[in-house]
């Protein structure tokens, strides 16, 4: 009978009915060891009670100990430990008192003896949260600054929840909490272990079936205990004694197992309640259980939180394995709520997707198919975070093996393959309204090709079937071209029915999908462009789409993207693709275009990445040449790239000079590198070697000049056999090393160059390079000009030594263009001072010589300003009347070059140059665009935005003029009265039906840059000026444009998929009021001015049976979209027109609604179909917190007839143009 003596330290018989301060102080001074002794004696007594018939309640009654007073004293200790300022002894006493109370409740007869109190049970079970010092992850409050103290405390913003105030109070108490030593923490933990053991014993002995709230609170207590301490190793969820459990979280999981036993109530409800609490452990969220309306907060992700999440998932798996089919409905609800309540953060989404995949693996094939079907609907949720998470879930499910259709409902078999997840869920997110979801979908599409599952790869290939077929066809054509000389054997077609499969739809769909992917690379959003790049690289890498230049050039173009991150991603993509396909010629060209252009990038990080790629792929692969050696794949690739830089990619080689300048500053070159490079000048790789030398020579002075001269001497005998590009690079190297050679060597090189130049057998590029080399050797005066064939040489020489050009030379060049060569030969003595030069005249010279004569004459003008006034008008006239394409093309180049040097003189002729943009020759148009683009920094060409800023009414003032001008309408007394020549009229006219789209493109551009007031003025001018003219069809088309509608009358609702914010409510109200006022004014003007004119025009057109009548009715249908119910009021003067218009509007509305249903696949749901939102039809539409939802299967609201009609009407209004 040690229990009764152990109770004496409480002195229950001496305590009065009402506690006073002396009694409380006396009780507070009790030693925790006495409580420990009391607990052990009561525990031993409960174990003996099972063997004997002796009852604790009888013992208490025999010793005159009141159960009520005992419970009151225990509750005093429990509540004393809840204080933040409680000492270690008070905390331990509180935990042990709670343990004693829980043991008492486990005894038979606790309810009959009035020892059970539900609130006290909850307090005792949760007392550890107050006694154990919590390491709060919340931010502490900052001390108010001095300035804020002076100005006074700010008013608390409205809308604060009571929970936030409680959190601030708790933070204040945490600041005052004292620190505990290691020994104190060990003592408190031991008491917590004792409490948890008592709670587990209570659940084994005492049924909470009649106390569901207490069972719910116990579930919450065990969930909190999961974070009590880190979980080490795996937890064994099988039945075992409490003494064998190693940690408190393990005991908490055991308590959850006890709670879902049938002893404590309905097993399905208990399991649903446990899963509801485990949901936030899996989501790594903290849910304040005392407030059902509060939002969950995200936990700081650390090892403890991740371990608890992992063990929670394993615990769910254990329960499913134990309960089998009865637990699967709860698992399905848990899966749906994980998806439904997931946040947007990447780390949480990745862990959540893994959890969904693990739990989905527990379901049967039918259950898995049902979840995939639900996921497909969930991927179209209104919240962006849900749609984003659905993509992550798809990727997690794709990592699992495909489900077998055996045992699955036949109606759900289509949801089992990976093909459905990729094509029907993942790929459809490419059209999402959110750019974030679009980018993530493209990124995951690229990752699908890296999966081990061949079914996933085939599913992606199925999305681009036409591209694959084209790739195979291209390969077959290539193979056929290589074997065309062989004899073909044709297969005999069996004489039977020929079955043809229609693949046009899939081919068309694949082409559309690929075109959509290419369009996404031009999306304004940076992340979408990066993700689309990654998707395209995956398709190219795995040969889903062919590696043609058309596709690869898109990657190269993205290396010049405005966004730095996209440029870096593009450089990474082209490098990755080059490593996979090093032998592809188009791939090599795309890599050179992308990387070489990035060397000149203004962003240093992009430049460094490009230099790193060039160094790794080209520079580091230069090894000494050996005839017996073998080039590995990387070395072969490097020389292939240099070969391309010497030929078809020569324009990119100029970027290499910048790279070599930077490398020289970094001391990247070594003597061994130069020796290795020069060793290739006599090898098959000579072209690339000389190209590199021509770029290196200007950047460094460490070259071995003797070795270069030896290579020069060996090349001289075979000068004519050397490739032109290589020869130019050699001459560039020889010219750049001139200052490092002695005079004797320089004379030898000059003699060699002059001997070659005097033969005049060199190509034009080599002549230019040779002359430039001679200039570097200081011997430009030795350049002698002889024949007309050498006009190019003359032009190059005149640029370098203008003083040596005589007047006779200029007249000779002029004579090539103006007079007959025979007449010029008959002239004896000095030539006349000037020749008739009204324009270039035809003569016996070929077009090629005349075109080079223009270039030579232009170069003379560049160095002799007195020639510009004489020849400039001739050049301008040749642009208009010349018939030779090459001559006019060179005139454009020369005039633009002259404009850079003599801007004031040539500025007057800029319209003549610009007129070549409409030249018949595509070459002239292309070169004109290039030259004018280069002139932007020299000529005062202002953009439309700058002009519009200086003159805001520029577009609106000339809008009516444009209608008459573009239609070449001259009958109006005020408009289109410009003095123009016939050539200018023919080149600028947009008259006719074939140019209608061009005219309206300009109209839209002008209207987009007009304000509402300007649009209103344009409408009035059209009514007063144009409607009475012969341009009625054009006018009605302009009035039907959506761009002419006043912006104030357009609805500015929230974007689809986004919930309106309360802070924008005031702005929305103001816009609604503004729209109402403008609409009333607009309506009044329309009735008073436009309607009478429209009625009279209609009667007139009907009498003449004009085809313009259909344009008038089309305009009326557009204009009356917002006044459908007021047609009779508007057209009261013509009841027949009102009836016709009402009929046309109704017919158009029905037709568009049917098209909407067919195109958008909107399925009409019967009116009597119940919806989850029917109960909330009268509630205002406002965002709700996540946890306000009931823990049940969330179902998306099915569309009803009324919502579909509203959607259709809104869609029609957005498509049609509202005028007036």
Question: Any overview of this molecule?
Answer:
It is a single chain. This protein is an all-alpha fold and 1220 residues long. 61% of the residues lie in helices and 0% in strands. The chain is built from 58 helices and two strands. Strands 1-2 form a two-stranded antiparallel ribbon. It is extended and about 145 Å long.
Mean pLDDT: 75
- Strand arrangement within the widest β-sheet reads 1-2
Structure summary, number of beta strands: 2
Poorly predicted spans: 136-177, 467-506, 780-789, 819-839, 939-944, 1052-1060, 1161-1190, 1196-1220
Number of helices: 58
Bulk shape:
extended
- What fraction, in percent, of the residue positions are helical? 55-70%
**Relative strand content:** under 5%
Q: Measured on Cα atoms, how large is the radius of gyration? A: 44 Å
The computed structural class is: mainly alpha
Protein name: Condensin complex subunit 1 C-terminal domain-containing protein
Pfam families: Cnd1 (PF12717)
GO molecular function: histone binding
Region (Disordered): 137-178, 1166-1203
Which tags fit this structure?
mainly alpha, 0% strand, two-stranded antiparallel ribbon, 2 strands, disordered C terminus, 1220 residues, Condensin complex subunit 1 C-terminal domain-containing protein
